[in-house]
Structure formats: C-alpha cells, structure tokens
Amino acid sequence: MKTRILTVTAVLLLCAVSHAAAQIRASREPFRITTDISRFRGADDSSLTVEIHYAIAQGGLTYRPDSAGWSAAADVTVLARTGDSLAFGDRWLVPHVVQDTTHVNAGINLVGVYPLQLPEGDFMVTLIGRDRNGPGRADSVTMRVPIAPTPTDKPTLSDIEFATSIRQGATSGPFFKNTLEVIPCVGGLFGEEQKAFYYVEAYGLQVGGSTADLTVRAAVYDAVGKELLSRERPKKRMGESAVLVDQFAVSALRSGTYTLVVSLLDTGTTSLARSGRKFFVYNPALGIDSTLLTSASSMPLPVYASMEESELDREFRWSQYDLAGAEKDQYGQLKGVDAKRKFLSDLWRRRPAGARDMYMARVAQANLTYASLGREGYRTDRGRVMIVYGTPDDYERHPNEQDTRPYEIWSYHSLQGGVIFVFVQRNQGGDYELVHSTHRDELHDDNWMRFAGQN
C-alpha cells in the first residue's frame, strides 16, 4: 500500500442544513465521515473511474493552537479489497485551520474527492477517517463497488453524482472535470433553500450510426413511486459521449427520501439508458408526509432500472437464501423484465431498510472468496453460511495438518448464545463441505471428525 501526505485545500460547504455558529468544543462532537461513490468510464474498456466523495464534519475534529491559529486534520485511508486480497491502498491528510474555535461549525463539512481506477470485478472499498489530534477518534465506511466494463454496443449512462454547485470557468482543482467544477453533495442531503445539482456522463451516443436528436428526461419520485417533478431537454449527438448537467429546486419537497431518475430517450420516446439515485430533503417548513412511511411503491428501485432480464434472474438466484417458498414460486411464473423489476423491488421493500445492500455485499464477498471448481461462491456451503449469518467472529483453519483433511471451524458468538460451523474438504482439491453445526437449524453431527480423517 502506498502512503502519501497531501495538503488538500478543503472546500467548506453545507450539504445539509446549517446551524447557527456557536461556541463549541470540537473534541466533544463525534468524529464523522460520510462517503459515497460515483462510477464513470475508465481509461480503458476493462476499468472504471471510481470517484470516492467524502465529507468530514469540522466540528468533530480536535483543534490545537499553533502559529496559524487553531489547526486540525483528518487522517484518511482508502482500501479496496477483492476477497482477501488488497487491490489498492492510499492515505492522505485533510487539514483545517481557523483563527479561533468559535469559527468551527458543527453543520459545516470538509469535502473532498478521491478518484481511482479499478478493473473489472467486485470490490469492497473502505474509507477510514481518524482525528489526527484526537487519538482513538475515528469513523469508517465500507461500500460494495461492483465494476463491469462499459458496454460498447448501446448507449449507457454513468452513475449520477449529486452536487451543491456546478459551474464553468474553472481550469483546475480537486473538483474539476470536463471543463466544469463539480462540488459533490456527499450523501445527497439537501436543505429547503438549496438547489440540487446533478452530473451524469453519457457514452455510446453514436452506436449504430444514428444522428437523430436525443431527449434527456429527469424525473423525481417520492418514496411511493409517485412522480413529483420532471423535465425534458433535447440533446444533439455531437460526439460519442456527452456530459449531462442540470439542477432543480427542492423547496416544494417535504422532508423525506426521493429518487432522481435520468433517462436518455430516442425520438420515439423509447428509453435507451437510465440511471437512478436516491437523495434526501430536510424541509422543516413543510414537515414529513407520513404516507411515505407506510405506502408500498409500484416503482422499481433505481438499482433495477437499467438491469437486463438476465441480470435480474441472476440477482434472484443470489437472493435464494432470503426467500420464502411462495416467493420462489411466484418469480418462476413472471414474464418480462418489468414484472421482474417490480418483484425484486417489492421483495426488498418488505425487508428492513438496508437489507438488500447488506445481503448483496455478503454475496459479493462469497463469490470472490469461496468460488470452487466452476461454482459461484454463493452456491458453496461456506458461501451460504456467510451470506445467511454474516462474517464469523472467529476462524479456526487447519489446512495442512498431518493425517487429516483440511477443515475449518467458524464461530459466531452472538448467535443462539454461541454456535460453530465445521467445514471439511472431503475430496482432495474439492470444496469445503458443511459437516456439523451447533446451530439449531443446521446439520448436526457430533462425530464430524470422521470426515476429517486420514487422506
């Protein structure tokens, strides 16, 4: 892992609601780091540019007096892993200096962007922030980042990046790209008086040789799938790729969760590509619409908006460990991509918030770590156990002991008062099979050691 110390010119902005400046003792505020990512086409066909956007609350830093005034810094580390392998690592400083601590505002963030190139694969990216002047004060965020090559046979859209401002005229700087200065709104939280800016890149606009004008449609949906705002603009095919930027006011939106969907349409209003992303509004003047908390949505989740039918079928197979029998039977009777998008959307809406992200992160980890003999990792015994129960608290590995086959013992301390799972590689070069567990719903065999006998 390479290590470097950067002097970053911190951009101070409010990507939320400002609070009145007040006398605070910064070290008493929690240290927080907020993170999101946007993926754009990479330097070659097999990679993507991943922009990691981060925001660090200046009120969570510890300030010390020096010749410049009062100085603080966040020590930030990024790690990208595939399975047990570290694919990338880096480290830098985000400094902040004030004349005195009365100028430290808990509602203001230090915002930055870190770009990196990642090849095709599934990655777990972790961003760790530490208060350099406050030992033990730290925060971290881990995100699953799947990387797939940008298709070359059809138009596509990048991820949506939300921003607090987008302006022309800049020629350099940490937020400069494609002749624009794009300052990210990390976490996508907007206050009642703000405008929400967004940035999207379009690729493959000249696939097939068509020169007809396109239409860019942006629509905002509430949590129950009702369209609240929309705008259509013409777009000429001036080249193979283009940058799409726009803004909309959030003052008419109640506090809550919303989804922006950007679509690229042909002259016949057929959708050629779509990209969606959630954002959040805090509007105390209008309050919260309580119906948003209870209604079921008929609109597919944004993550499914651009998935082909084969991708939906694959996710359904991955989801099998979280499905009831009736749900499996119902999916088998569905016809068409729209029906499958709705089914998977409704499936995860019935689960607790964040359940899909956690589940799919476990699937990605299982596929990366436990693939065996042509079988995807989620189909193996170790992969299934990790997906269903999470990462073990302890591993006990016995890969090369004399007179025994390789075996592993996984321990979960918080499940049913403490349980274990035992896996044995019963066939040389084969996969590890579950032979025993103390979990009440799993295979139980106290005489499991016979499977780990002599090779």
General description of the model:
The chain is mostly beta strands. Helices cover 12% and strands 40% of the residues. It folds into four domains: 146 residues, Immunoglobulin-like; 143 residues, Immunoglobulin-like, CATH 2.60.40.2550; 49 residues, no CATH class; 86 residues, no CATH class. α1 runs parallel beside α3 and α4 runs antiparallel to α5. β4 and β5 form a beta hairpin. The protein is globular, with a radius of gyration of 25 Å. The strands form five sheets. Strands 10, 11, 12, 13, 15 and 18 form a six-stranded antiparallel sheet that branches. The two termini are 39 Å apart. It has five helices and 24 strands.
Largest sheet: 6 strands, antiparallel
CATH architecture verdict of the largest domain = Sandwich
What is the CATH class designation of the largest domain?
Mainly Beta
Category by helix and strand content: mainly beta
- Kindly give the count of domains: 4
The strand count comes to: 24
What is the CATH H-level superfamily of the largest domain? Immunoglobulins
pLDDT < 50 stretches:
1-26, 291-296
Distance between the termini: 39 Å
Helix content: 10-25%
- Total of DSSP H or I helical runs spanning 4+ residues: 5
